[in-house]
Recover the amino acids of this structure.
């Protein structure tokens, strides 16, 4: 009888241990499923947030591209010459925003020139859809530095000093030009968004490398 009683107790203990193990497994599965659901939900929410943020950014860029730039000057692109010439050209505006130009363009793949560049080469870069950032001696070192950093990050843009320009800081594209107050002027980003390879570009997609380098 004692042997049967001990055997029954062992079976009961084993069964209890099995029940406890099954309960632990169920808890582990529940915890794993719950944690996975939380992670998936977080990823979905994060993805939706990023998509919405990217969508908002694109909408803002599209709005900026359509909105007029305050105090911007414009010239009729159709009346700006586009012939290749070998002689110097006298342009009616400084810096020039279009006209006849040299067959070799200035490299404009985020190039920052410390010395003045030739107008006839720079104008060719504008024809390719580049934005040209220029400054004179009245510009602050901080603004020149900040604009230079922006240009370096922006393909189809370049920067150089132009001593005889009217404004301390100016931005030019083909047929377009604006004088800005500082590197943080909101018109800087707007001008870049609107005119880097913008609709005004006579030769969209043309190269900004393989041209003329620093003088």
């Amino acid at each position: 009888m004692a042997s049967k009683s001990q055997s029954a107790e062992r079976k009961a203990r084993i069964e209890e241990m099995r029940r406890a193990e099954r309960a632990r497994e169920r808890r582990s599965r529940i915890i794993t499923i719950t944690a996975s659901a939380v992670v998936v939900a977080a990823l979905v929410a994060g993805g939706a947030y990023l998509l919405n943020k990217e969508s908002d950014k694109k909408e803002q860029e599209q709005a900026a591209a359509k909105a007029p730039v305050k105090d911007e000057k414009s010239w009729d692109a159709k009346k700006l010459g586009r012939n290749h010439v070998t002689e110097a050209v006298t342009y009616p505006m400084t810096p020039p925003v279009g006209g006849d130009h040299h067959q070799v363009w200035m490299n404009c793949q985020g190039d920052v020139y410390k010395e003045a560049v030739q107008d006839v080469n720079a104008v060719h870069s504008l024809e390719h859809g580049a934005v040209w950032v220029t400054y004179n001696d009245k510009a602050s070192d901080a603004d020149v530095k900040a604009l230079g950093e922006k240009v370096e990050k922006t393909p189809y843009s370049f920067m150089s000093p132009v001593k005889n320009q009217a404004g301390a800081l100016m931005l030019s594209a083909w047929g377009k030009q604006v004088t800005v107050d500082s590197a943080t002027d909101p018109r800087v980003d707007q001008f870049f968004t609107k005119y880097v390879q913008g609709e005004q570009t006579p030769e969209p997609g043309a190269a900004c490398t393989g041209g003329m380098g620093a003088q």
In short: The chain is about 45% helix and 10% strand.
